[in-house]
Every structure is written in C-alpha cells, then in structure tokens.
C-alpha cells in the first residue's frame, strides 16, 4: 500500500479527484501496444523485459501534472517511485507519432556504454524500455500559450511508469536470450516476461474522445522533449492485486472530497 501512504502524505488525494482523462481508449491501447512492441524488439535482446499494462492511477497522476501546463518534471516522482516521459507539441496529439519519436532516440543511444550521443536526448527511449517497469499511465492536456513555447496553444503529454529506475547509472535491461531470466514470472510472450495476473486486455474498446478542442497546426510546429525524472526501484505489484489497490485509491479519493 505504498502509494496510498505516499498520495496521502503529498496531498494528492483531492487534486486527483478533480482530474479527468483526455485520452480515448484507442489511444491508450496504442500507447500500451507500441510500448510492448518496442520492448519486445530491443537490440541487443533482453534476458528480462516486463510486458507493460495500463494503470489508471498512474494516468491520474499524469493528468494532474499535465493540467498544470508546465513543461517540466513532476517533483513528486521520487517519492512516488515513478518514472516519467514528457512531450509537447503544437500539432493535434498523435499517440503513435509520439511513441515513434521517443523510441527513435535509440539511434543516439549506445547500449554497451549506456551513453547518449553528445547534445542528444535518449532518456525517453531508456524509460520506454526500462525492463522492470510493468505499468504505465498517461494523459494529454490542451494548454494555453506560454512564454517558452510561443504564442500558440499546445498539447502537453505525460506518461508515468512504475516502478522507476536509476537511468543515470544503470542500463535499462540486461542483455541475453529473450525471457531467459523471467524467474518471477511464469510466462514468456513476444520476448517479454508476463505474470499470470497481467495477461489479457489492458484497456476497454473505443469510446468517444474527451479532449476539449484540437490544437492549431502552425506552419513550422515545434517539439520539445523533456528528460525523465526517476526514483528508487521498488518491487511492483501486478494484475488484479494492483487493480484492487488502484480501485481502493480512487474510492478513498472520492470519500475524502465528500
């Protein structure tokens, strides 16, 4: 119940109750599916790579932070033991495009040295393929113009990952034969370690889009990617157990604001 204590201590309960998701179920599926596709095809191959599933509690944390429209990291990440990727764009949000751009950073990343080419960003890629992260939740918010990003509205997209890791000193995964070190998970699926209680659909079928309005498309759209802030690794909970925790968190949030 670590998250329960952490969210209470940080005062996020009331804030999270006011947050509303801005992603369709199809966009959630795209985000999860593309993460797993990329994670299953890393080079060199991973001896242990968790298959990720969607988590609504992480999504609420992401929505709370994206709604601030500040292109910077959530200062509570370390306390909540979460990783984070951030992306801003003046174009209408495109989940597949964002996933491709994050994963494309692998071209500037050297796995052997665990270093990124000079003046390049690789942190988004590293977080995408962080082997021990097993859950993901994201949100997008349509923001007013800011001094740093210019006079046009923009979409701020945030993804949170659990558990996080120390990307500055550790490699995202251990290389080896796929699934050769799935010691704590009984199944291997598409070169990824899968626990019994995390199999099956991660999100529901398509529902109407909740984004309030589309962003204007400038002649020369700007992009800004922000490095990840990561915390201390923690043993993750999985599947029905984690879903129960998430449901309990949301119920307590609702009770606290009555």
TrEMBL record:
Sections of the chain in a coiled coil: none
Pfam families: CAP
Residues covered by region (Disordered): 198-222
Keywords annotated in UniProt: Signal
Domain SCP: 26-169
UniProt-listed InterPro entries: CAP_dom, CAP_sf, CRISP-related
Signal peptide: 1-21
Protein name: Peptidase inhibitor 16-like isoform X1
Species of the source: Carassius auratus
